[in-house]
Amino acid sequence: MEPIWALGLMSGTSLDGIDAALILTDGEQIYEFGESLYVPYDADFQTQLRSQLGQQFPDPQIARQSTQHHGEVVKQLLSQTNKPVKLIGYHGQSTFHAPPITVQMGDGEMLARTVGVPVVYDFRTADCAAGGQGAPLVPIYHQVLFRHKNHPLVVVNIGGVANLTYSDGEVLIAGDTGPGNALINDVMLRDFGQEFDKNGQTARVGRINPNLLQQWLQDPYFSKPFPKSLDRDHFSKFLREAQGTEGVATLTALTVHSILMGIDVLPKSPQEILVCGGGVKNKTLMALLGKKAAPLPDSEMIEAQAFAFLAVRVLRGLPTSFPTTTGCRVPVCGGRLVYPESFSTQR
Fold first, then answer.
1. Does 158 appear as a known binding residue?
2. Which residues make up the binding site for ATP (predicted)?
């Protein structure tokens, strides 16, 4: 198959906005990176999205609005490029994750009709049906990005939830390590009226409560082997005990400790730890991860790029998840492809 331009969309569990990015790919290699765009949600819609967290059956009106927001972002990005976009990868907004049930709010068919481009969506259901966790799905993209490296490395993505991908040229392992930014953001909003801990300033002035941290680390999730995955609010019970600057500092330490615990059980010690996601901007968090951890350059759009890549793999019938990344019984090609009514395959 000749490479095509695909557009990926990602709205993560941090609930800050929508990432959109273009890549030229055949689903096996990345040939070129194109334009990208980030559009933040307004405060009112963030509140509406937050009301849907934990909901197995999201409000249809809010789901429709979410799809409309994604459609507006697609149209905006398409207006900024002359690249012939042939396919869209639409992750949707996760509201509930308890495998084998996982819910990503959004209507792929509506999006295809709105923008006039084929859409791949519902990436997780097939994996869950095959015994997998439905997440994480980005590891195969990480592996392709770094296939030229001949040593063990880890890519850590710190979004609302933190996850890692391990690759050593032979083995691909992945899973969610624990909370990422979500709980920190929740405390910042509740106690300080701020959406996130800018540059980790609040964590830096707070005091880590070692007893509370060790208590939290006793949660059975942290001792589970990879692959494993989390709902954004799996650890929301910790919010009752996380108060003020101490709470932010201790939650930041929890994110770091759970990442390092995950790295400790990998087959080989990684020579590189590359960090991406919103957490890379948290200077206190990055300092706690240690000198071996380095920001992944130009990585702000990596998840949106990944879903463009995954969409092309679905188009080609290639697997998007694997037994060592999600726990599925066999490699799975997960995703539903829908076409707008007016679309011509001759375009």
1. no
2. 12-19
